[in-house]
Write a structure and sequence with these properties.
With 360 residues, this protein is α+β, with helices and mostly antiparallel strands. It contains twelve helices and ten strands. The strands form three sheets. A four-stranded mixed beta sheet has the order 1-4-5-8. Strands 2-3-7-6 form a four-stranded antiparallel beta sheet. A hairpin with a 2-residue loop joins strand 2 and strand 3.
Length: 360
């Protein structure tokens, strides 16, 4: 039995890497980070033309009809390029419509999402990571009231999939009256966070109940873990490259045993994350009974490993590691946000313990 990626999957990831190198270069990322009015529309258009916007959307709606494993491989490439793209929200919203949307809702939105014409987000943080500052959205009589925090890509979203306090999901159009968006300053400059306020906002219900929210949680954990994997690998690769060229005492620093050990330890810590994420993504579609636990393990482990690699890679670079010229801080901060998105490792492990009957 072959447990490796297929040739098509490897070719897709390599081709996506080349597209990102052109559309989302470090210079373009730096420009995006320095201008709050820059929505990165050119980057998202290039990625939508590649097919990313419709990756899990069936071909009948103009998508590629691929699996979550394929989406995870794409997310890994996006993390490696620190690309400012609303990929996470688009995939989660696509899954929500595919699993819980009516035929009319699917016909209205999926083709627009697959083409990249509509940016979608999933507003589910409070129900998964825990509510903060009295946040939470209440649904009564087909209308939503409350607020949701830490929504990536919320400023530009034309479609929102919103979880209420009863774990039900609702579809909200971006221009609906009563919806207010406020920019939330955050650690990661490549993905902007939004606070959404709902005042009698008209919403359409999505079916499937709490089971659908659980599926979105699992998919979100896997995609975030894959993004962290890509960012971690990029930081490791840069540390190794720097150690091979930086000279001290007439020797490259990579020849020093201490630096060798730092790079080797980063590689050893990161490699198990790769297979765990691949299996979690595979289980989401092929082994649903295992999906939640595998997704939790992938998110929690990669969050911890990502923090270790972010710190250690910066240390290998020495003083250069904290300069804007090098740009290492973009990956450092992306890993920091990924650690907390949809729950930090402590929260995720608590959920994993409950799934196994180890905690009440």
């Amino acid at each position: 039995m072959d447990f490796s990626l297929t040739q098509d999957q490897r070719m897709m990831q390599e081709s996506l890497g080349r597209t990102l190198a052109e559309a989302s270069s470090l210079g373009r990322v730096r420009k995006f980070a320095g201008d709050l009015t820059d929505r990165g529309d050119d980057i998202w258009k290039a990625l939508a033309d590649f097919g990313l916007a419709g990756m899990v959307i069936p071909e009948a709606f103009g998508g590629l009809g691929l699996t979550l494993l394929d989406a995870a491989l794409a997310s890994e490439a996006l993390g490696a390029a620190v690309a400012p793209a609303p990929f996470l929200g688009t995939v989660l919203a696509s899954l929500a419509l595919l699993r819980g949307g009516s035929p009319e809702q699917q016909a209205q939105w999926l083709a627009k999402m697959a083409s990249g014409d509509v940016v979608a987000v999933a507003v589910i943080s409070e129900q998964i990571a825990g509510a903060r500052d009295d946040a939470g959205v209440v649904a009564v009589g087909g209308k939503l009231n409350g607020k949701a925090l830490f929504v990536p890509g919320g400023m530009a979203a034309g479609l929102l999939i919103v979880a209420d306090t009863a774990d039900r999901l609702h579809l909200v159009q971006g221009e609906t009256a009563g919806l207010t968006r406020t920019f939330m300053p955050g650690l990661d400059e490549t993905r902007r966070l939004t606070e959404l306020t709902f005042v009698d906002v008209v919403a359409e219900p999505l079916g499937a109940g709490p089971q659908l929210l659980t599926a979105l949680r699992d998919a979100g954990w896997i995609l975030i873990a894959a993004d962290s994997l890509g960012a971690s690998q990029a930081m490791l690769d840069r540390a190794v490259a720097y150690a091979k060229e930086r000279r001290q005492f007439d020797r490259v620093i990579g020849s020093f045993q201490a630096v060798k050990h730092m790079c080797a330890e980063m590689a050893a810590e990161l490699e198990p994350c790769r297979s765990l994420i691949w299996y979690a993504a595979y289980a989401f579609d092929a082994a649903p009974a295992e999906a939640s636990l595998m997704a939790a393990h992938a998110k929690a482990l990669t969050s911890e490993v990502g923090r270790f690699i972010a710190r250690t890679s910066t240390e290998v670079h020495g003083g250069m590691g904290i300069t804007d010229l090098l740009g290492l801080h973009f990956w450092f901060k992306r890993l920091g946000l990924n650690r907390q998105l949809l729950g930090g490792p402590e929260r995720v492990r608590e959920i994993a313990a409950k799934l196994q009957g180890l905690a009440a």
